Input
Amino acid sequence: MDIKRVAIDAVNETIVMNVVHMDYKGQVAKRINEKMPLAQVKGFRKGAVPKDLVEKQYGKAIKQEEIKKVVDLALERYIQSERLNLLGTPLAKVNEDFNWDAEELTFEYEIGLVPNFEIDLEAKNDIVKYIVTADDKLIDGQVERIQKQFGKAIPQEVSDENSDLTGTFSNEAEGIDNTTTIAVSAFSKKAGKQFVGKKVGDVVTVSTKGLFEDDHQLMDYLKVGHEGVHGLDVEVNFTISAINGSEPAELNQELFDKLFGEGKVASLEDLKAKIKEDAEAQFAQQSEQKLLLDVQDFLIENTKFDLPAEFLKKWLQTVGEKKLTAEEAEVEYARSEKGLRFQLIEGKALAQSNIQITFEDLKAFTSNAIRQQMAQFGQTNPTDEEVEGIVARVLSNQEEVKRLSEQVVASKMLDIFKEKANPTTKEVTYEEFIAASYGE
Output
């Protein structure tokens, strides 16, 4: 068998395979002999059918099956021997006039190659690593929320500016239908006036424009996606199902113990310090996530290489349980191209820095994540045995292993970039961080 590669460009090639009779005749003959005792042809006893009739009835199908096996195995071995780094899998070129009886059979496969490129992790950049602090305004607001949350709810017949309203925001055309509890004070000053003096069963119709001081609150209370909140100007109905005032909880040891465990917080100052600590730990995670996204965008923008786009679009039509149309594959490729580019960049960066991900890395990362989750639910001092048991269960799930492995790789990638690129560090409040995150 003769196999060769024909280059189209740097990332597209065709593998051409010329198959002759000698490549498959032995296997075909073997299969015919195996078929003879089982062959059934009218007018002959089973097992007594002449060989030429067996070949006539079954030979063509057997020949095609055996040629396909030979070609598939040869293609796999050729890709391994040539050490081809492929994107997707080879696609057979369709030949409607293919002649299976020809002396020499030619099979062609399109392949897409991983591009060769270089990345510069030390390139000049304007990326900022934010250190997000919890300021007095945020901390005092959280203290008030705690007092309200654990305070005594007092049903009201008529709402006032201090009421909590339970109800449903709705707009059928926009797909808005969300039941929530919201303080009248959460609305903008102008919009809030429309919710004062209302009773259970009343329907308040308001515009989403100017409903809150910060449009991002539409995401929380109306469940509108981030891409849809900016400039959203539609009317929504809020149907009131309950109105409550509240008597703030007393900031005493009983409340502190209920929130944080016995004796861990003993005063208002301790409470504020704990709120600050917990908030800034959460902000640090959000900051790292933003930094990772900014790094991804920077590297994708500054690392240029071609992808075998047309090949990948055709390949996308062939994979998966549901076959895609050309139009659907076009959409899917556009959706996934950025992720593919960064996946290639990420792999190159790890290789350049001689970074490998070990199972011990995965276990350590999983253990730390579990401890953080347990701490959020008040289990601040789990035993090593408890954590190791949970880690073992989590890592027995292949989907979880894949998800966590991607997070470990992302973490390693971020460490490399912080070391090599030295992004600027800037201390900001949470409000300033949100503004920076959403470009506002």
The chain has a mean pLDDT of 89.
